[in-house]
């Protein structure tokens, strides 16, 4: 018996020192094989291929032709595509800021409720829009914000406000799409912040209360710093998503009126899949990816000063 | 003094409740309008004021939507595509997540590092090569293209790995001593314990892929292959603004499965959202 235990202990120790020698390696490779195959073919290789394709001119049918940096030079002088980067950035920043501010505000208010069923009810209400697809949301919001027949303009009319061209005039359309995106996605930041606020220790809050700190002071001096890592995470994820904004403008305005809501992903779709310029489309994709990485990097840099890690 | 702060606090709490109620009305209003308008007759559907309470619900739109477009077909396509992705990704991610957490093999950290790096890259920025690969595989315009290109997931692998990392290694060692093979140890001990993480991943994937619009738009051309979101947008185009109540009936049918699942498994939805944040 004692011998067996010693042997077991020996094996365990050996396992930690020479893992591969214990014959685990083939099992490990077999276990990751499927994931590696699919991630390689449909994610890793396409990343490299996207970069590679951006140096070619290709219409899918004929042989690709190497053109060096031509696609990028073209992009630098392509007014409409450059504008789409500006449109995307403007809408993305607006969406993220509203999502963070409203999500945090609602989370703080919900966490103040003492009754659990009240909290659950509000949480469900703010989460429900996330369950609908962006396509479904774009369809019914398109009706609600219709210029002539829309319910929104009907109620505004009752208040004596003339019809607003929600989706049919440039700036208004971009604003409306921002609001619709925020309406649907505020539940995401809200749920994150509710969970995070619950983890703020009550003794800290009680101490602040005893010291005479009001609710606003407690919020900005204690709660926000304590949940700042979650705020950073929410900001990063929300911005990466918002930079890819496609469904709502594609379905509701087709990028219009004019090019007011043509986001980068819409211009990429037009160049790549409608005009079959796969090289140029890839160049736009690579610049978008670079922009996303730079902005995410900036967020983490800013976080060094602003985020408080416990 | 004490009483005045008490009154202030009470005013604050009441104001907070009022704000929350208004916010909830804004969040739910458009959804409620969608449901109630889908129950109005096509002729009435455009009439304002909207009917917030369906006093005389008219269910004809729900049969009309099946007559006008192949919504049954779209529904079936969506069920098959989403179902296969959910099952497939659960398998691939559970296997690889376990291996990256619990099994030692050469190159493990390098390969996992590559997985992590790909997580940073959004789908839209690599969609052109993915489309080209789909074409080479002969899967253009097939719902299977949506499935095959979503079977692996770096994020899902990461999620499962994080969960397995918390599990004690001793359990597996004990089982191994009892003569269980590597795979049996994984399947009978660890995979069972990972059920909550598997449920979270499955629900995250269901809600994501059920609602997906972008890849179907790019991969599919024939109407009979469309999934629900793509088909509904087409329906809106076909009918123009003729009878929005029919379109909205389709929208309600498309949202319903997600809502039902949410009611059954609410905590896994929340877990899915918070999973990425808590590292």
UniProtKB/TrEMBL annotation, chain B:
<feature type="transmembrane region" description="Helical">
    <location>
        <begin position="12"/>
        <end position="33"/>
    </location>
</feature>
<dbReference type="GO" id="GO:0005886">
    <property type="term" value="C:plasma membrane"/>
</dbReference>
<feature type="transmembrane region" description="Helical">
    <location>
        <begin position="74"/>
        <end position="98"/>
    </location>
</feature>
<protein>
    <submittedName>
        <fullName>Carbohydrate ABC transporter permease</fullName>
    </submittedName>
</protein>
<dbReference type="InterPro" id="IPR035906">
    <property type="entry name" value="MetI-like_sf"/>
</dbReference>
<feature type="domain" description="ABC transmembrane type-1">
    <location>
        <begin position="75"/>
        <end position="265"/>
    </location>
</feature>
<keyword id="KW-0812">Transmembrane</keyword>
<feature type="transmembrane region" description="Helical">
    <location>
        <begin position="185"/>
        <end position="210"/>
    </location>
</feature>
<keyword id="KW-0813">Transport</keyword>
<dbReference type="Pfam" id="PF00528">
    <property type="entry name" value="BPD_transp_1"/>
</dbReference>
<comment type="similarity">
    <text>Belongs to the binding-protein-dependent transport system permease family.</text>
</comment>
<keyword id="KW-1133">Transmembrane helix</keyword>
<feature type="transmembrane region" description="Helical">
    <location>
        <begin position="144"/>
        <end position="164"/>
    </location>
</feature>
<dbReference type="GO" id="GO:0055085">
    <property type="term" value="P:transmembrane transport"/>
</dbReference>
<keyword id="KW-0472">Membrane</keyword>
<feature type="transmembrane region" description="Helical">
    <location>
        <begin position="110"/>
        <end position="138"/>
    </location>
</feature>
<feature type="transmembrane region" description="Helical">
    <location>
        <begin position="244"/>
        <end position="265"/>
    </location>
</feature>
<keyword id="KW-1003">Cell membrane</keyword>
<dbReference type="InterPro" id="IPR000515">
    <property type="entry name" value="MetI-like"/>
</dbReference>
């Amino acid at each position: 018996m004692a011998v067996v235990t010693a042997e077991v202990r020996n094996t365990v120790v050996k396992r930690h020192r020479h893992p591969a020698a214990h014959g685990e390696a083939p099992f490990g490779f077999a276990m990751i094989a499927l994931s590696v195959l699919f991630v390689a073919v449909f994610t890793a290789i396409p990343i490299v291929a996207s970069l590679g394709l951006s140096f070619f001119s290709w219409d899918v049918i004929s042989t690709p032709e190497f053109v060096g940096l031509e696609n990028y030079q073209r992009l630098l002088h392509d007014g409409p595509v450059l504008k789409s980067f500006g449109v995307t950035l403007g809408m993305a920043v607006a969406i993220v800021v509203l999502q963070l501010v409203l999500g945090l505000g609602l989370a703080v208010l919900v966490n103040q409720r003492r009754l659990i069923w009240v909290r659950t009810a509000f949480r469900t209400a703010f989460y429900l829009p996330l369950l609908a697809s962006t396509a479904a949301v774009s369809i019914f919001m398109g009706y609600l914000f219709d210029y002539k027949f829309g319910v929104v303009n009907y109620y505004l009319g009752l208040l004596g406000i003339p019809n607003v061209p929600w989706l049919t005039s440039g700036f208004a359309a971009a604003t409306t799409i921002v609001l619709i995106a925020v309406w649907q996605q505020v539940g995401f930041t809200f749920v994150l912040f509710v969970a995070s606020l619950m983890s703020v220790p009550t003794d800290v809050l009680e101490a602040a209360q005893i010291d005479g700190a009001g609710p606003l002071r407690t919020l900005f001096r204690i709660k926000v710093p304590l949940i700042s890592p979650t705020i950073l995470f929410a900001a990063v994820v929300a911005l990466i998503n918002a930079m890819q904004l496609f469904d709502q403008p594609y379905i509701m305005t087709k990028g219009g009126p004019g090019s007011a809501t043509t986001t980068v992903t819409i211009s990429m779709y037009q160049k790549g899949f409608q005009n079959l310029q796969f090289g140029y489309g890839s160049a736009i994709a690579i610049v978008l990816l670079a922009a996303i990485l730079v902005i995410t990097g900036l967020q983490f840099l800013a976080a060094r000063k602003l985020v408080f890690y416990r | 003094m004490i009483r005045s702060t008490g009154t202030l606090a009470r005013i604050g709490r009441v104001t907070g409740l009022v704000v929350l109620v208004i916010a909830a009305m804004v969040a739910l209003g458009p959804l409620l309008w969608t449901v109630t308008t889908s129950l109005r007759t096509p002729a009435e559907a455009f009439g304002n004021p909207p009917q917030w309470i369906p006093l005389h619900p008219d269910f004809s739109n729900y049969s009309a939507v099946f007559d006008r477009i192949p919504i049954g077909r779209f529904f079936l396509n969506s069920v098959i595509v989403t179902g296969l992705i959910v099952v497939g990704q659960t398998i691939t991610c559970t296997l690889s997540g376990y291996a990256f957490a619990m099994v030692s093999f050469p190159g493990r950290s390098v390969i996992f590092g590559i997985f992590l790096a790909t997580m940073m890259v959004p789908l839209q920025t690599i969609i052109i090569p993915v489309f080209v690969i789909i074409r080479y595989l002969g899967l253009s315009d097939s719902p299977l293209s949506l499935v095959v290109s979503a079977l692996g997931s770096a994020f899902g692998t990461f999620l499962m790995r994080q969960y397995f990392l918390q599990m004690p290694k001793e359990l597996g060692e004990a089982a191994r001593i009892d003569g269980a093979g590597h795979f049996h140890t994984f399947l009978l001990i660890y995979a069972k314990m990972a059920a909550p993480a598997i449920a979270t991943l499955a629900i995250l994937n269901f809600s994501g892929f059920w609602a997906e619009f972008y890849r179907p738009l790019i991969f599919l051309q024939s109407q009979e292959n469309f999934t629900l979101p793509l088909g509904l947008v087409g329906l809106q185009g076909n009918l123009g603004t003729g009878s929005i109540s029919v379109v909205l009936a389709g929208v309600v049918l498309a949202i319903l499965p997600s809502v039902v699942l949410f009611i059954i498994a609410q905590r896994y939805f929340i877990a899915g959202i918070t999973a990425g944040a808590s590292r």
